[in-house]
Structure formats: structure tokens, C-alpha cells
Design a protein that fits this description.
86% of the residues lie in helices and 0% in strands. By secondary structure, it is mostly helical. It has one domain. The longest helix has 25 residues, at 27-51. The radius of gyration is 15 Å and the shape is elongated. The two termini are 19 Å apart. It comes from Ligilactobacillus salivarius.
Length: 76
């Protein structure tokens, strides 16, 4: 799961010119999307860890990956 999350964050760096062109915004503003995603992961990880500490790791990983796949599918 760490690989999938890391790939999601870093793949958008190479696409910043296309994102900025599509949204008609400067590349620097489009770069904020990477920063916002990183902040979400930074602050969300400890909170979700606390909330899900009672769950089985295997079950949790399956649910997280299903949500991750669904989110990426909807965004595509």
C-alpha cells in the first residue's frame, strides 16, 4: 500500500504541466495539489491509525486498498 500511495503522489509531479494547462492555472498553483495530497497523508495517517487500531491488519489493508482503487477509478 505504501508503494501505491507513493506512486500516486509522485506521478502527478510529471503531469503538472498537463494539469496546469487543462485547468488554465500556473504550474506553481497546480503543484499545490501535490502538497495538499502530502499534507492529507501526513495528518490523516496518525488519525486513521488511532481509529483503526482494533481492526485486523489484513482486513484493514483490504478495505484501504478497495477504497484507494475506488477513489482512483472515480477520479479517472
Amino acid at each position: 500500500s505504501a508503494f501505491a500511495i507513493g506512486t500516486t503522489e509522485f506521478i502527478s509531479v510529471g503531469l503538472l504541466p498537463l494539469i496546469s494547462q487543462d485547468l488554465h492555472i500556473p504550474v506553481t498553483t497546480a503543484g499545490l495539489t501535490v502538497s495538499m495530497y502530502a499534507l492529507g497523508v501526513t495528518f490523516g495517517a496518525p488519525v486513521l491509525t488511532s481509529l483503526t487500531s482494533g481492526m485486523s491488519r489484513k482486513t484493514l489493508l483490504l478495505w484501504v486498498m478497495l477504497i484507494f482503487i475506488a477513489g482512483n477509478t472515480l477520479a479517472a
